[in-house]
Amino acid sequence: KQEVTQIPAALSVPEGENLVLNCSFTDSAIYNLQWFRQDPGKGLTSLLLIQSSQREQTSGRLNASLDKSSGRSTLYIAASQPGDSATYLCAVSGTASKLTFGTGTRLQVTL
Amino acid sequence: EPEVTQTPSHQVTQMGQEVILRCVPISNHLYFYWYRQILGQKVEFLVSFYNNEISEKSEIFDDQFSVERPDGSNFTLKIRSTKLEDSAMYFCASTQLAALYGYTFGSGTRLTVV
Predict the structure, then answer these.
(1) N or C: which end of chain B has fewer CB within 10 A?
(2) Can you list the positions of beta strands (E) in A1-111?
(3) How far apart are CA B38 and CA B71, in angstroms?
(4) Is the pLDDT of residue A97 over 80?
(5) Do A43 and B105 touch (CB under 8 A)?
């Protein structure tokens, strides 16, 4: 059974810092990995999708990497802003074509 | 950009009542899903639906739950006799082909059972 873990559970950084969020998964037989953002009480906004054959994807200040063999992904956020404050979720899609979500990292970017 | 639309955004119901949560997936998507998130917990898979039938369901998705695509656009989740522990945020998602395109989620329905 796929298990997804995210570290750290919570993170507080001053504005302008670069930061890394970590995601690990136990079963490397995945189709893809998707990073989402969730604001309090809101829905899931897709940030980046990495196919299993890819190593990384970039969108603006966000860069996600995938090391499928070791079961790890990182989300790098450059020059963080207060508007980046949210919970970031990592989710993997396996052979059953459903997503298994991690526990999330709650990020706060302070002024 | 196309969206997955969910209604209502918030529903309060009495224990034992039936509720129907509604979703309009993106029009050219073929695969549909329901997930739920109990407050403070992980997002959990409930059910997937393809070609007018359930393709997979979790152990959470017992006989009190059902899904339906009554017409070409709506996708519904029915909870027959709600319990207090059904209180959660319910998310609908859809994809054209998950392996290539990933999933698009709706903004969720917050269900509160009192």
Answers:
(1) N
(2) 4-7, 10-14, 19-25, 30-38, 44-51, 56-59, 62-67, 72-77, 86-94, 99-101, 105-110
(3) 29
(4) no
(5) yes
Query: Does A98 contact B56 at a Cβ distance shorter than 8 Å?
Result: yes
C-alpha torsion B102→B106→B110→B111, nearest 10: -80
Tokens 């930061």 belong to residue: A19
C-alpha count within 13 angstroms, C-beta hemisphere, residue A32: 18
Give the sheet arrangement for strand A56-59, strand by strand.
A4-7, A19-25, A72-77, A62-67, A56-59
Interface of A with B (CB under 8 A): 31-32, 34, 36, 41-46, 49, 51, 89, 91, 93, 96-104
Residue A92 or residue B98, greater confidence: A92
B44, B99, B106 member nearest A32 (Cβ): B99
